[in-house]
Design a protein that fits this description.
With about 100 residues, this protein is an all-alpha fold. The protein has a domain of about 70 residues: Helix Hairpins (Orthogonal Bundle), CATH 1.10.287.1080. It is globular. The protein contains 4 helices and no strands.
Length: about 100
């Protein structure tokens, strides 16, 4: 990867690959399952030692959590990139910081 993969692209990729609104509850159950698997991998400190060997690691489970979260966003037709901006502004009011969110980065 070139380090320039956007959330918008990920949402489009997942929508093309796996868009089944009738499975909303199943997507949520998968998200919950993947959070549990992430928790297990974190508890055991299972970090990939090789980028090509991520099975069962924190690395793999992070992607699975992101995947199902974006699949759910797609069903609700949520533009996550827009939400990130708005939520960052809300958080800044609640938790001021010297680090500011920058769009198009």
């Amino acid at each position: 990867m070139d380090g320039k993969t956007t959330v918008k692209y990920l949402q489009s990729y997942i929508r093309q690959k796996d868009f089944q609104p009738e499975l909303l509850k199943d997507y949520f159950l998968k998200l919950s399952e993947e959070v549990g698997e992430l928790s297990r991998a974190m508890r055991k400190g299972l970090k990939a030692s090789d980028v090509n060997d991520i099975k069962g690691t924190i690395d793999e489970e992070i992607w699975d959590v992101i995947y199902y979260a974006l699949a759910i966003a797609n069903i609700y037709d949520i533009d996550v990139e827009s939400v990130i901006k708005v939520k960052s502004e809300m958080n800044e009011l609640k938790y001021p910081s010297n680090v500011k969110f920058e769009e198009n980065r």
